[in-house]
Structures are given as structure tokens and as C-alpha cells.
Amino acid sequence: MKPNISLEKLQNYVVENSSYRLYIHGNEFDLHFIPNTPEAEAHFPDGESVEHVMYGYISNGVAYFTKFVTTSALGKTEINIGDDDPVMEWLKYI
Predict the structure, then answer these.
(1) Confidence of residue 93 (pLDDT cuts 50, 70, 90)
(2) Which among 28, 38, 63, 64 counts the fewest CB atoms within 10 Å?
(3) Model-level pTM?
(4) What are all long-range contacts of 55-60, with beta carbons under 8 Å and residues at least 24 apart?
(5) Closest of 8, 50, 43 to residue 29, by C-alpha
(6) pLDDT tens digits along 63-74
(7) How far is CA 50 from CA 1, 11, 58, 75, in A?
(8) Is the distance from CB of 60 to CB of 7 less than 8 angstroms?
(9) Taking Cα atoms as reference points, which of 93, 88, 79, 68 lies closest to residue 4?
């Protein structure tokens, strides 16, 4: 099963964390995150911010994550998120 979280829980997390933005388009969503801590900024390529976008779909009130995209001065990388993908471990802490 794709990494997932209840949509309500995800929405509450985004409200509490200003570096996240959630956009819902019908039964699909994209979750944008730009790290804004001094520790993260020290690692930005060419001093420019890095944007992470997680894509997925919503079914029965649950958000399922399917793709992770990172865009920076170095370009764009995309990975399809598999079942129990370790990149999504952060969901356990919400």
C-alpha cells in the first residue's frame, strides 16, 4: 500500500507548519514544502531554495502519496513512491 495519512490529519499539519502548502484538485493533491531553517539553507545549491513537491490522490478521506519531486538550482529530480518507501517515514511523526 502506498504511504498514506488521513486527509484531515495532513490538512491540520499543513495549517500548523507554514513551510508546507497543500493544493487539492478533485481527488488529487500536491503538497509543497520549502525548507526554511538555517540548517537547511546552509545546504542549498548556489544559495537558492529547494522545493519539494509530493503528489498523490485522495480516496475515502485518505491521502496516498505516489511521487516525490525536488527542484533546485541543480535541476529537477523525480521519484515514484513505492509501497513503504523510506522517503515517507516522516508521516509517522505527524
Answers:
(1) confident
(2) 38
(3) 0.84
(4) 55/28, 55/29, 55/30, 55/31, 56/2, 56/28, 56/29, 56/30, 56/31, 57/27, 57/28, 57/29, 58/7, 58/24, 58/27, 58/28, 58/29, 59/27
(5) 8
(6) 999 999 988 777
(7) 28, 22, 26, 10
(8) no
(9) 88
